[in-house]
Design a protein that fits this description.
The protein is mostly beta strands. It is 1% helix and 58% strand. A hairpin with a 3-residue loop joins strand 10 (133-141) and strand 11 (145-152). Residues 3-25 and 222-231 have low confidence and may be disordered.
């Protein structure tokens, strides 16, 4: 992993793994070719199916699953542990993709996923029966649609890319723009590269060879506070949006925002990547402050 910044040199316990930082007039840059393996300072892997394996190789990281599992939505991902602010450009170079769709459906996918506010923008290389077979496309949530028309391709090697300029986010496969839409300036709070069995039990495999990021500001990944909407009734409901999947999301309450007197009220764990949750809360004073903290279960 190497990182170029317009500020200061990376320090701390992970400096040896994250390598270096230097001055740049172009904002901040990060590039990982995985020659030093998968650095825990920069990456974590999660899955909802234990059959998946994540194996660092010589200059790459291979994600794979043998035949098996169920016909639900199964996935494994690599999560880049940084947030991006302002304009950005993210690309994932992959090789040796094997996502042939043989059972169930809709199919199998390799994805570069970018989460911004409550939006998800993904560039997908897939084999899906509803899209005519092997293709590349953009998946956008909301409103959960395929952006534009799929580009038919059976390429086993390629580059998935997502770029934002101003409010407009664009998706590319091997240099060809697939779709663009205005999604606003919210920070990209999660970047991930995923291998997915969407309703299939097929054997799937892909190697991530390189991951590159350029942004106006690359910040350390942090637990997020969900957006809160309150209805002022005797017992009111807090609707928490954008919960962190597969972590424990804890609703906390305090009598002031700038305080260390936060008390835990309720926990919720969600599996979906864009889930929301509702909490029924009894008021405990004239002014109360609520927040959501995400942490490992």
């Amino acid at each position: 992993m190497s990182k170029t910044k317009n500020r200061s040199v990376v320090r701390g316990a992970c400096a040896g793994l994250c390598l270096l930082a230097a001055l740049s007039a172009r904002g901040e840059q990060s590039h990982d070719d995985f020659t030093a393996g998968l650095s825990p300072c920069w990456w974590e892997s999660r899955n909802n199916q234990p059959l998946y394996q994540v194996m660092p190789t010589n200059g790459g990281v291979t994600l794979s699953k043998p035949v098996g599992g169920d016909f639900g939505f199964q996935w494994v991902d690599l999560r880049f542990l940084r947030e991006l602010h302002g304009d950005f450009d993210v690309s994932a170079q992959f090789t040796d993709a094997s996502i042939h769709h043989a059972t169930g459906g809709p199919g199998n996918q390799i994805q570069l996923n970018v989460f911004m506010g409550t939006s998800v923008f993904a560039v997908v290389r897939s084999d899906e029966n509803g899209l005519g077979g092997e293709n590349a496309h953009v998946w956008a949530v909301p409103p959960a649609i395929i952006g534009g028309s799929p580009m038919m391709t059976a390429a086993s090697n390629g580059i998935l890319r997502v770029a934002r300029r101003g409010d407009v986010v664009s998706g590319y496969f091997n240099g060809t723009q697939l779709w663009a839409e205005a999604l606003g300036p919210d920070p990209a709070w999660l970047l991930s590269f995923s291998l997915q069995n969407n309703g299939t039990r097929d054997a799937t495999r892909v190697t991530l060879d390189a991951f590159s990021v350029e942004a106006q500001d690359i910040r350390p990944f942090a637990c997020r506070v969900g957006a809160i909407e309150a209805t002022p009734e005797a017992t009111f409901q807090l609707v928490i949006t954008n919960l962190t999947p597969l972590l424990t999301n804890t609703l906390q309450v305090s009598d002031g925002w700038a305080t260390d007197r936060w008390m835990n009220l309720q926990d919720v764990v969600v599996s979906n990547m864009w889930a929301s949750g509702a909490f029924s809360v009894a008021p405990e004073g004239p002014v109360r402050f609520y927040r959501v903290v995400s942490r490992d279960p």
